[in-house]
Amino acid sequence: MKKIVSLPAEDGYRMPGEFEPHRGCVMIWPVRPGSWPYGGKEAQKSFLEIAEAISESEKVWMLCDHEHAAKLRGILRDKPEIYVLEIPTDDAWARDVGPTCVRNRQGNVRGISWEFNAWGGTFDGLYAHWEKDDRAAKAICRELEMDCYDAHPFVLEGGSIHSDGEGTVLVTEACLLSPGRNPQMTKEEIENHLKQYLGAEKIIWLPRGIYQDETNEHVDNVCAFVRPGEVVLAWTDNREDPQWELSMASLKVLETERDARGRAFQIHRLPIPEKPVCITEQELLGFQFEEGEDRREAGERLAASYVNFYISNGGVIVPQFGDVNDKKALKILENLFPERKIYPIWARPIIVGGGNIHCITQQIPQGKDIDI
Amino acid sequence: MKKIVSLPAEDGYRMPGEFEPHRGCVMIWPVRPGSWPYGGKEAQKSFLEIAEAISESEKVWMLCDHEHAAKLRGILRDKPEIYVLEIPTDDAWARDVGPTCVRNRQGNVRGISWEFNAWGGTFDGLYAHWEKDDRAAKAICRELEMDCYDAHPFVLEGGSIHSDGEGTVLVTEACLLSPGRNPQMTKEEIENHLKQYLGAEKIIWLPRGIYQDETNEHVDNVCAFVRPGEVVLAWTDNREDPQWELSMASLKVLETERDARGRAFQIHRLPIPEKPVCITEQELLGFQFEEGEDRREAGERLAASYVNFYISNGGVIVPQFGDVNDKKALKILENLFPERKIYPIWARPIIVGGGNIHCITQQIPQGKDIDI
To answer: Catalytic annotation on B64?
Structure first.
């Protein structure tokens, strides 16, 4: 692993779409008491189901600290496609702390290590210590033998960007312009930075994400590429729902914008759960918060969205909330991904921790001659 | 009224503290159906009580559109200290749409007309049309015969700044760095702009304001000057309350910062209501929302804070919520303002609209030879 001083775009690298072939997927075993109530039992069950679904078509690397590694190896002993990597982290959000990977025309893959500050640092970050998370991307690159661009001190999370692999990147203003990220930069400077790192020619700025999303409204919870020129957008027809206005604002942008290749977007509306998913008193009692860690209130609405799926080589792993719209979402995605198997996953234990399936996974693109 | 092309600081003007002598106070008669439920009856009662309290020691100008002017004149017929000004607005937030006034050493007073975009424009603004609000500051300056600086296209609201009159201005990062205000500017550029317009030498950036404050957390709801070097800070000792972390972050800044004159701050903690003030189903039914207007949800917590008081020449007008901390807040303010009369006002009808007493008032500083 060598340290690189140039920028990905000038080196001919760009970020592939998630729907392009993967070498594998990085996940992190969930143990943080302030994110996963009651010792993380329920969350671990869901994480395991997701890892198994993904491992049907690609490798999975499950990060874990030294303390939990032996037990995890035991749990995974009959699952050879799920590898344990002993890398310590502060929580389990592989999407946000893992490397964002870029690839050149020759099929070389490199990672990017953004500065991570727990979604807002001292301004509105969700926990007070994020040193291990901040080092995770580089550690993963080392383990997977990828060179790594160091983007520090530029603050970004993997969940705040989506690439179509053809020069277009989706982001939200709510997140990327949040005071807790890069307040010393103007919107234009941030856009130029993204272009240079992701090899993009066009940045599409959606205004907002999902109501109450504590990542400052990551794009990966509200809008995702199905393939170049085609997106799903989290949606509600209920004008009384606070999400209506947020989704409508994004729809307007998507309807008027063109992508880097000049195409208009084909937009598929994916309903949010009809009944808001809220945290219960019972769940609340299972958390153990640290000093400086964000807390929840009973009844608080969670940012549940079916857009937070993961596209594996052979499947789409989709969150389910026990809502009447669960099946509708599956049906829509089934039609949009006819060549992939749809895996419905009971995701309440993950959304209770503040994110969903896409947030806890990070694809490593397929390189030209790397083992798969 | 002449248009001025120079900047206040270079002309020798600066923003006085609210505790300095006033020529009077601007308010706006509340009639908007999406802010004031059930025809605004309750809100109008509270506004009237506030205007009466203020008029005991200074003039009050009550803005009103042509449609409601005759009725309002009737209501005010035996209150000669409250003048009706026929200026149309989109709602009733005089603090945010009225002029921010600056004064020079000779006692000349000028207004500033910021760009107003309903607290976030198309990004997260609270209503879709704000043209009348945006023109209000200039119209008020014309009526009150003050020259006016035009700060457009710099977006700012009066509630997002507090001055000590001696070169120090308090703001919040949450508001001033919000993507809906001036995303084309860096934090440093915004700071320099404030210094030039307000004649300030030091900008104190508190990170956050009051939890759930839909103005993106205006400073005037969380922290206010009692006099130079001395502030009140909205506070809770309850670590389970989401406000705890926000207030703690501001406390840390205030404890380490110095003001423009090099003084450490004397910080007085003013409790927030002990029991969260939430909107009821009953209140919700009384609203009539327009297309593109922000809606509320039943049970939603409102940003109730006693810091949102108004300092008049002879008094302090303080919001009351029917909470056990109502009296505690009055007691603290009584001690801090021994020379002023304390006016407790039933403020639930105002917080239901999204703001409080400070938000609906805007002082016009006393000039050298202006009628009072």
So the answer is: no
Question: Which residues of chain A neighbour B208 with C-beta distances below 8 Å?
Answer: 123-124
Chain A partners within 8 Å of B124 (Cβ): 174, 207-208
- Quote the domain boundaries for residue A256: 3-365
State yes or no: ipTM above 0.90. Answer: no
Q: B183 and A185: CB-CB below 8 Å?
A: no
How does B70-102 read in b/e, with b if 16+ C-beta sit within 10 Å? eebeeebeeeeebebbebbbbbbbbbbbbbbbb
For chains A and B, CB pairs below 8 A equal 69
Contacts of residue A36, defined as CB under 8 A and 6 or more positions apart, other chains included, come to A30, A42, A43, A44, A92, A349, A352, A353
Question: Tokens 């507090």 map to which residue?
Answer: B162
Residue B206 forms contact with A (CB below 8 Å): no
Residue at B372 is within a domain:
no
User: Do A231 and A281 form a contact (C-beta atoms < 8 A)?
Assistant: no
Q: Can you tell me the distance from the alpha carbon of B33 to that of B40, in angstroms, rounded to the nearest whole number? A: 7
Residue B300, chain A, CB below 8 Å: the answer is no
> Which one of B177, B240, B245 has the shortest CB-CB distance to A183?
B177
Asked whether the predicted pLDDT for residue B2 surpasses 90, the reply is no
pLDDT (tens digit per residue) in B304-356? 999 999 999 999 999 999 999 999 999 999 999 999 999 999 999 999 999 99
**B370 lies in some domain:** no
Tell whether the model's pLDDT for residue A372 goes beyond 50.
Answer: no
Within 10 angstroms of residue A68's Cβ, the number of other Cβ atoms is: 18
CA atoms of A350 and A330, how far apart (whole Å): 18
Is the N-terminal amide bond of B153 cis, ω within 30° of 0? yes
B207 vs A123: CB contact, 8 Å cut-off? yes
Q: Please list every residue in chain B whose beta carbon sits closer than 8 Å to the beta carbon of residue A294.
A: 245
Residue A372 belongs to a domain: no
Judge whether B20 is closer than 8 Å to chain A, CB to CB.
no
**DSSP of B123-159:** HH-S-S--HHHHHHHHHHHHHTT-EEEEEEEEE--GG
Residue B164 structure tokens? 């000590």
State the total domains in chain B: 1
Whether B119 contacts B97, CB under 8 Å: no
Q: Which of residues 110-149 of B touch A (CB under 8 A)?
A: 122-124
Could you say which residues from 248 to 267 on chain A have a Cβ atom under 8 Å away from some Cβ of chain B?
249
Compute the distance between CA of residue B237 and CA of residue B240 in angstroms, rounded to an integer: 9
Distance CA A39, CA A46 (A): 14
Q: Which residue stretches of B162-227 are H helix?
A: 173-176, 187-198
- On chain A, the residues whose CB falls within 8 A of the CB of B285 are none
Q: Element (H or E) spanning A170, and its range? A: strand A168-172
Q: How many CB atoms lie within 10 A of CB A21?
A: 12
A370 within some domain: no
In DSSP notation, A269-289 reads EEEPPSS--B--HHHHHT--P
Using one digit for the tens of pLDDT, what is the confidence trace for B215-244? Answer: 999 999 999 999 999 999 999 999 989 999
Tell if the CB–CB gap between B173 and A185 is shorter than 8 Å.
Answer: no
CATH code of B300's domain:
3.75.10.10
